[in-house]
């Protein structure tokens, strides 16, 4: 009997204008963890959606346990023992965990009339026991952590008898500790004969968790290697197609005076919940101040308070000695604050505008782009072309609509637009989220260049290695509080991970200078 | 909550509440402010009730004793029937993700259709069902005789007709919203406006005026022995059968929503349809079913409105339905999509209406007419936001990313 769990042969999937998968082959051994590695848009998720029956390929065959299968819908794939855990969880938040797990295949009682809640809870309980999951089936999904929600998703596929589990970017939403727990879960699954396919664009994760790695680039499968026979540099080169510097070279630089001061800021949302609690820190000229934290711990709200999209309930924002707490968004741009927003589609660009128009955003009221209430389109066009050239936006066409650009190029254009304002303070939120390695490298260099030119940079990112490498000082947020400010060079990834989970490991040296509680 | 608990909480709240300064009020969070307002309102109402109990001769006393009187409760329950049933149906549709704002139209069409069917099948008696049908083709007469016939009172056939008409219109609405992805609010308004025009128009064609003549009305059911129980007996066991149907529908609807597979699917379909789709349940089929359920319950409600009381359809102005479909929406929102809550809210509205009829001597009629709606506004402000299903109002197409 063959030891192959899944084999994809010559899969081709086209979307209008793009070939998402071009003759891709993939063989996954039973009982192994197989990583599917590639940059965004490399075709990883498309390939897995084909395997899960969500998409039908134009060419190629799918074999499960040696048998050729055709999946018209996820239902067929589920029947063949394939389960997929999507990046965005498919859970019904107000329902209890057990109800989510058995949804669609509820055990019944009273001649099929009613759901047998006790039996369902028992079955879920047995599953948890078998795979060593600590999950209380009667809790409501919205009350449990993201890590537990992910386990509920895994249980859902196991309940349906899945032998092959596809996990799409499973670590994107987890804390470092939860990632460790996930690795344990994967070990337990493979130990019991299950097969795991792990979609990721993070080299470290692929190296750490997988037995074999298949690299995809531009819809083509580049190579399949065993983790024992490769290294991160080789994988990075395969992913990007050229040599990449994985380590950022941060030059020595002495910071100057405080440029941005955040003083005791609290932000309360519409439900009267304090999203940001008494946060204080300052960013000096020529310094990168990083903020790490799992998404949703108040970083977005803090940034909105600093950039003027939201008013803080209390506290002050001070730029170069002036209290700008009451300033509008436009005034803050004039105060010298540039902002790279977290969601470039929602807030960074108008997707249906071309680059000429997008380049004007935020400067539409200012000379030389606007005179006597009229926009000087020639000047504006020149400005957009300058950004495209300086920041290497591809394709170099100012008339292209924003949505026609790749994520990395959209981001480079935003970075260019914001940096061309010659700001004194830059607030960069997840500047490399969803951006390919090449563009990431470029954006990191630009941020460090600002630092060399004595600008203050506030960097918010959920990528721990990014904030650790770039920051001079690093604040960690948990549930709206700035738990601590540490020296990223002196603090281990594990210690920062604990801070991100709200715990306080021993022996951490705080760099906090003002405010805050001990 | 019992009275002791209430009193204790009021007493606890009072020392903190009373000396509040303006500055303190201003700095209070929204949730606290809402809680304070709720307790103040409850406190004032409790004081008024207490005053009424102590001084039965006062205005407050008259209101209080009338409100808990047997005849008020009887008519409140009767008036609650169309609202409560419609609310139960509406909450199913909305839980599944389809906001059915056309409930008012379903009530109108079923109220009218029930009367027409009862009338066409002939007066106040009973009809053999299925009927014997004969027709002439080319000189010879053919007769279709089902052989066995049940004797069904016309009034019940009328109700069945009303339910059928309402479900047909609901199905049309579902097709527009689900199959053709029309906007639910616009389609719902269309259902209302179409019914509002169609029913009086059809009545004009058939009877020469927007209102139908009286045809047949539902009698009261009297359960022997049980109806002799003091106070409760006459209210529950010597009443309009529609009241029974409503009182049975509430727990059944609750059970269906919270204890059956279908109920879970309805909830999942309204919260995260993709989650339901990926486990292999057809989301749109669930939504069709839920909308048809709303048509079913609104159909009973509408038939109860026409055949249950006057035995006719009044098509003047806003028709005899007169906004009950919209009150039903407020009722299920106020009841937070719980059939029991929706029933309680419906009873509150209908109780105020019943009280208004009885207390017209005390204050100008207009004040009382306004009362149910004022209460709706106050209650919605105090109770705060109802949690809407996450995907309510959104189309769902399988395979969309």
Chart the SSEs and their pairings:
The complex is a heterodimer of chains A (518) and B (401).
Chain A: E1 4-15, E2 18-29, E3 33-37, H1 44-51, E4 59-64, E5 67-69, H2 74-79, E6 82-85, H3 97-102, E7 108-109, E8 114-115, H4 117-131, H5 146-159, E9 164-168, H6 176-191, E10 195-200, H7 203-209, E11 212-217, E12 220-226, H8 232-240, E13 258-268, E14 274-284, E15 287-292, H9 299-307, E16 314-319, E17 322-323, H10 329-334, E18 337-340, H11 344-348, H12 355-360, E19 370-371, E20 374-375, H13 377-390, H14 407-419, E21 425-429, H15 437-452, E22 456-460, H16 464-470, E23 473-478, E24 481-486, H17 493-500
Parallel strand pairs in A: 3-10, 3-11, 6-9, 9-10, 15-22, 15-23, 18-21, 21-22
Antiparallel strand pairs in A: 1-2, 1-4, 4-5, 7-8, 11-12, 13-14, 13-16, 16-17, 19-20, 23-24
Helix pairs in contact in A: 14-15
Chain B: H1 3-17, H2 22-27, H3 30-54, H4 59-67, H5 70-95, H6 103-120, E1 126-129, E2 133-137, E3 140-144, E4 150-153, H7 154-179, H8 184-207, E5 221-222, H9 232-237, E6 238-239, H10 241-259, H11 261-271, H12 273-278, H13 283-310, H14 324-334, H15 339-358, H16 365-383
Antiparallel strand pairs in B: 1-4, 2-3, 5-6
Helix pairs in contact in B: 3-4, 5-10, 5-11, 5-13, 5-14, 5-15, 6-7, 6-8, 6-13, 6-14, 7-8, 7-13, 10-11, 11-13, 14-15, 15-16
């Amino acid at each position: 009997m063959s030891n192959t769990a899944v084999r994809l042969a010559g899969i081709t999937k086209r979307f209008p204008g793009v070939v998402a998968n071009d003759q891709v082959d993939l063989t996954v051994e039973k009982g192994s963890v197989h990583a599917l590695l590639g940059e965004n848009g490399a075709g990883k998720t498309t390939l897995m959606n084909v395997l899960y029956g969500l998409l039908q390929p134009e060419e190629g065959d799918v074999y499960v346990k040696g048998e050729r299968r055709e999946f018209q819908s996820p239902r067929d794939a589920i029947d063949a023992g394939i389960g997929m855990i999507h990046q965005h969880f498919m859970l019904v938040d107000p329902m209890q965990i057990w109800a989510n797990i058995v949804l669609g295949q509820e055990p019944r009682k009273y001649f099929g009339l009613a759901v047998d809640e006790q039996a369902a809870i028992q079955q879920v309980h047995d599953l948890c026991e078998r795979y060593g999951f600590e999950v209380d089936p009667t809790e409501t999904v919205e009350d449990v952590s993201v890590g537990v929600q992910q386990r509920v998703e895994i249980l859902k596929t196991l309940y349906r008898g899945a032998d092959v589990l596809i996990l799409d970017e499973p670590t994107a939403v987890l804390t470092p500790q939860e990632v460790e727990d996930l690795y344990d879960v994967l070990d337990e699954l493979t130990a019991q004969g299950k097969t795991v396919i792990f979609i990721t664009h993070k080299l470290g994760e692929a190296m750490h968790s997988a037995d074999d790695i298949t690299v995809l680039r531009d819809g083509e499968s580049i190579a399949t290697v065993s983790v024992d026979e490769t290294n991160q540099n080789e994988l990075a080169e395969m992913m990007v197609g050229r040599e990449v510097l994985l380590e950022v070279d941060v030059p020595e630089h002495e910071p100057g005076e405080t440029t941005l001061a955040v003083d005791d800021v609290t932000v309360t949302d519409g439900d009267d919940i304090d999203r940001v609690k008494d946060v204080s820190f300052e960013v000096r000229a020529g310094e990168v101040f990083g903020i790490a934290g799992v998404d949703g711990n108040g970083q977005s709200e803090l940034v909105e308070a600093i950039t003027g999209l939201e008013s803080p309930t209390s506290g002050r924002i001070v730029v170069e000695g002036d209290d700008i707490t009451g300033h509008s968004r436009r005034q803050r741009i004039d105060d010298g604050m540039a902002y790279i927003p977290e969601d470039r589609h929602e807030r960074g660009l108008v997707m249906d505008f071309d680059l000429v128009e997008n380049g004007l955003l935020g400067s539409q009221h200012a000379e030389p782009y606007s005179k006597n209430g009229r926009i000087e389109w020639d000047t504006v066009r020149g400005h957009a072309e300058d950004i495209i050239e300086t920041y290497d936006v591809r394709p170099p066409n100012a008339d292209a609509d924003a949505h026609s650009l790749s994520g990395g190029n959209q981001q480079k254009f935003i970075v260019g637009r914001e940096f061309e304002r010659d700001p004194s303070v830059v607030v960069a939120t997840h500047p490399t989220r969803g951006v390919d390695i090449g563009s990431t490298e470029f954006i990191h260099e630009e941020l460090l260049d600002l630092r060399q030119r004595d600008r203050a940079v506030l960097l918010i990112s959920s990528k721990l290695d990014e904030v650790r490498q770039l920051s001079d000082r690093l604040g960690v947020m948990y549930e709206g509080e700035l738990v601590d400010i540490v020296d990223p060079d002196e603090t281990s990834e594990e210690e920062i991970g604990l801070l991100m989970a709200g715990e306080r490991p021993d022996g951490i040296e705080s760099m906090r200078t003002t405010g805050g509680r001990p | 909550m019992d009275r002791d608990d209430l009193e204790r909480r009021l007493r606890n709240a009072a020392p903190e509440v009373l000396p509040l300064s303006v500055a303190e009020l201003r700095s209070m969070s929204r949730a606290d402010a809402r809680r304070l307002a709720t307790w103040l309102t409850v406190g004032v109402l409790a004081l008024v009730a207490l005053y009424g109990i102590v001084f039965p001769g006062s205005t407050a006393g008259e209101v209080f004793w009338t409100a808990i009187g047997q005849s008020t409760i009887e008519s409140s329950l009767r008036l609650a029937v169309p609202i409560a049933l419609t609310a139960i149906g509406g909450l199913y549709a909305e839980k599944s993700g389809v906001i059915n704002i056309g409930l008012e139209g379903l009530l109108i069409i079923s109220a009218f259709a029930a009367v027409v069917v009862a009338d066409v099948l002939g007066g106040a008696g009973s009809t053999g069902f299925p009927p014997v049908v004969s027709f002439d083709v080319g000189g010879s007469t053919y007769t279709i005789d089902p052989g066995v016939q049940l004797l069904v009172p016309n009034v019940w056939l009328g109700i069945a007709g009303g339910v059928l008409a309402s479900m047909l219109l609901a199905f049309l609405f579902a097709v527009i919203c689900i199959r053709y992805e029309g906007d639910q609010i616009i389609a719902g308004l269309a259902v209302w406006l179409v019914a509002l025009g169609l029913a009086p128009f059809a009545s004009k064609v058939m009877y020469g005026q927007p209102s139908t003549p009286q045809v047949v009305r539902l009698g009261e059911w009297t359960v022997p022995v049980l109806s002799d129980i003091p106070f409760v007996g006459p209210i529950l066991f010597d009443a309009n059968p529609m009241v029974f149907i409503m009182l049975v529908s509430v727990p059944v609807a609750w059970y269906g929503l919270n204890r059956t597979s279908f109920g879970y699917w309805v909830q999942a379909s309204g919260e995260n349809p993709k989650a339901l789709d990926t486990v292999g349940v057809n989301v749109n089929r669930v939504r069709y079913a839920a909308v048809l359920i709303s048509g079913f319950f609104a159909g009973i409600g509408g038939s109860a409105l026409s055949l249950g009381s006057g035995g006719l359809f009044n098509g003047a102005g806003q028709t005899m339905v007169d906004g009950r479909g919209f009150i039903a929406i407020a009722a299920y929102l106020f009841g937070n999509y719980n059939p029991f809550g929706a029933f309680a809210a419906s009873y509150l509205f209908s109780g105020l209406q019943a009280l208004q009829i009885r207390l017209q001597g005390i204050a100008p009629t207009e004040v009382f007419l306004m009362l149910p709606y004022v209460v709706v506004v106050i209650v919605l402000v105090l109770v705060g936001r109802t949690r809407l299903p996450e995907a309510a109002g959104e189309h769902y197409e399988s395979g969309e990313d």
